[in-house]
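Try this one yourself first.
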């Protein structure tokens, strides 16, 4: 509420208490209209600017999300691959142990079968000593 050009009264707290020229009164609405249209234009550019910023923030957020998801997937794949390799090594180790156990079993089984066969042969030989054969009887009875 200061003294504007063409105003005859000093600066007062209430602008209706001072008198201005008619020329200035008529000019004020035009300036106000111009300011309103300038404000509307700047509001439009502000809206465009805000929309641009919002779009940039959105695309930045989406990019960070994609990067985060890519890192997660990459890490998960690496962990799964590592886990798969470890399980594969463990599986091969277990299979090797099972094969070694089976080989020991087959070897031990064959050795036991050989002992059993030898015992059967001893038994048959001993039985042959105690059994009287018909050819031996005939000789004894003559």
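Now uncover the answer:
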């Amino acid at each position: 509420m200061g003294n504007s050009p063409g105003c005859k009264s000093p600066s007062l707290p209430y602008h209706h208490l001072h008198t201005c020229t008619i020329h200035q009164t008529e000019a004020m609405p035009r300036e106000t209209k111009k300011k309103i249209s300038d404000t509307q234009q700047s509001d439009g550019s502000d809206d465009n600017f805000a929309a641009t910023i919002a779009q940039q923030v959105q695309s930045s957020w989406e990019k960070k999300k994609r990067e985060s998801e890519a890192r997660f997937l990459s890490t998960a794949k690496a962990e799964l691959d590592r886990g798969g390799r470890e399980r594969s090594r463990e599986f091969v180790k277990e299979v090797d142990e099972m094969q070694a156990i089976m080989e020991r079993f087959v070897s031990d089984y064959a050795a036991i079968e050989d002992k059993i066969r030898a015992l059967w042969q001893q038994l048959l030989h001993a039985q042959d000593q105690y059994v009287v054969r018909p050819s031996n009887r005939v000789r004894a009875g003559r």
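Discussion: Residues 20-27 have pLDDT under 50 and may be disordered. The CA atoms of residues 5 and 24 lie 8 Å apart.
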